Amino acid sequence: MKRFLPDTFTILLVCTVALASVLPVSGQPAHYFAFATKLAIAALFFLHGARLSRDVVLAGLLHWRLHLVILATTFAIFPLLGLGLGFLFHDLLPGPLYLGILYICVLPSTVQSSIAFTSMAGGNVPAAICAASASNIFGMILTPLLCGLLLSAGGHGGVSLDAVSQIFVQLLLPFLAGQLLQPWIGNWVRARKKLLAPIDRGSILMVVYSAFSEAVIEGIWLNFDLGDIAMVLAINIVLLTLVLVITTFGSRALGFSREDEIAITFCGSKKSLASGVPMASAIFAGQSIGAIVLPIMLFHQIQLMACAVIAQRYAAKRQAEHAAEVPISA
């Protein structure tokens, strides 16, 4: 069925990994490419800051209970589940892949797809915009901090001060610059979303190509087999299923409306590939980044397929209820 087919960006990711596997960049060209990648990432986060309206941020503060639940799911429940699954499956996965699973759990939520699925399902779209945006803003600070705590608990050491400073310079400063200029350039940037889309996707593809080029040179495909990849897929599915159950039934137990439940379910269960890949290059500098980002690349496609099905079911249920109300009102 169409909803189970990979999206265009996922296909580009696969092609990028394949290209890096056959033609990895190395030597002096790799240094130039790494510098260009850092510039592209800075441009990506500058545009994120320029797009985000301050009115949206201020409006989101009014629905603090919903945002608190989403942030708690993203930065507390997810890491706890990651640690729990890590203790269960630690011996079944090579170290870098297990590190990648832990890394998934400390990443912020997605922005575009969370909003799109919330809209498709008939949920609270303004709340989803605020929650997903807030998750990414807090993520630039919380992700490296939680990464240090989680990796220490998992026996992988912490995060260096240099990594935190790189994230600040490469991600947070461009974002803040975009926010400062947002009143003057925000409308222009939002009106040219399609024109500027290549910067969004291109910067991520550049990081993936650079990371996998290095990993291929180090022998990533010799160190891992199909069984390792299958185990990563299985853990990702279990992790996503647990969070979907917690967000769906937890929001109902807390008395949220269905519209809010939909926003909590989609914003709380998703993890950002767009933020995760650039941050990994700073946090895990000098390590096998290709193996670490591989789990989030797989999680990205799994969450898209699962959320597409869930969004369609929410929408179908809403249409059925609306159709049942029409004769009564007539």
Automatic annotation (TrEMBL):
InterPro entries: Na+/solute_symporter_sf (IPR038770), Put_Na-Bile_cotransptr (IPR016833). It comes from the Bacteria. The chain crosses the membrane at residues 30-47, 68-89, 95-117, 129-151, 163-181, 202-223, 229-249, 279-299. Keywords: Membrane, Transmembrane, Transmembrane helix. This is Sodium/bile acid cotransporter 7.
